[in-house]
Design goal:
By secondary structure, this protein is of the alpha/beta class. The protein has 6 helices and 12 strands. It has a single domain, classed as Aldolase class I (TIM Barrel), CATH 3.20.20. α4 links the parallel β4 and β5. The longest helix is centred in the last third of the chain and has 12 residues. It starts with a strand and ends with a strand.
């Protein structure tokens, strides 16, 4: 199981995440309280080890600006969190993570229209796109045949609930931001605890088996 720590704004936060074992770091270039300037992100990304992948988060941004920032910062992935179309995603010519806000079961139907590297399912935003810090109904994901090996689960994850999320959904990656913060800042202790919980989850003792009935995937242990 891999971990993405999103909303990185400082070298200290990035260092804490890397030291704790994060696999992806997210940098928000859209309107957000965690927004970072491309120049600042460039400095942080320059110091990352090769195995830690950088992700730039954009919301309904122009193709030209996304490509400009991607080139400047040397991003590994582009995360699109707005109303970007499948055609727009394909036109970027970059590795894509497409985010989808899940309110009800039918919101998952649109995933099949996109050809991207990862599909991120998240809680609906409140003030901004995504980042509400509140989990959505994970049971909605169990009624659909989803690309598990390309699935990123986000939305209100914490050290206290991430094991339950993994047991229910078994995503490829779990994505956390506010769940590892204290007073709006990345907390090294919370980051370490969260990643340890994910990385030490007893996968071998609780292997997931799936059976398909009536077009649904049922996860049993």
């Amino acid at each position: 199981m891999q971990v993405k720590i999103c909303g990185i704004t400082t070298k200290e936060g990035a260092h804490s995440a890397v030291e704790a074992g994060a696999d992806f770091l997210g940098f928000v270039f859209a309107k957000s309280k965690r927004r970072i300037l491309p120049e600042q992100a460039t400095e942080i990304i320059r110091g990352l080890p090769a195995h830690v992948k950088s992700v730039g988060v954009f919301v309904n941004e122009s193709k030209e600006e996304i490509q400009r920032i991607a080139q400047l910062t040397h991003l590994d992935y582009i995360q699109l969190h707005g109303a970007e179309t499948p055609e727009f995603c394909a036109s970027l010519g970059l590795p894509i993570i497409k985010a989808f806000s899940i309110k009800q079961e039918k919101d998952l139907d649109v995933l099949k229209d996109y050809d991207c590297d990862y599909y991120l399912v998240d809680s609906p935003g409140v003030q901004y796109a995504g980042g509400s810090g509140i989990p959505f109904d994970w049971d909605l994901l169990q009624s659909k045949q989803l690309p598990q090996e390309q699935l990123i689960l986000a939305g209100g994850l914490t050290n206290e609930n991430v094991s339950m999320a993994i047991a229910k959904i078994n995503p490829k990656i779990v994505d956390v931001s506010s769940g590892v913060e204290t007073d709006g800042e990345k907390d090294p202790i919370k980051i370490k605890s969260f990643i340890e919980t994910v990385k030490t989850y007893p996968y071998q003792a609780n292997k997931t088996s799936r059976s398909e009935e009536n077009g649904c995937i049922h996860i049993t242990r």
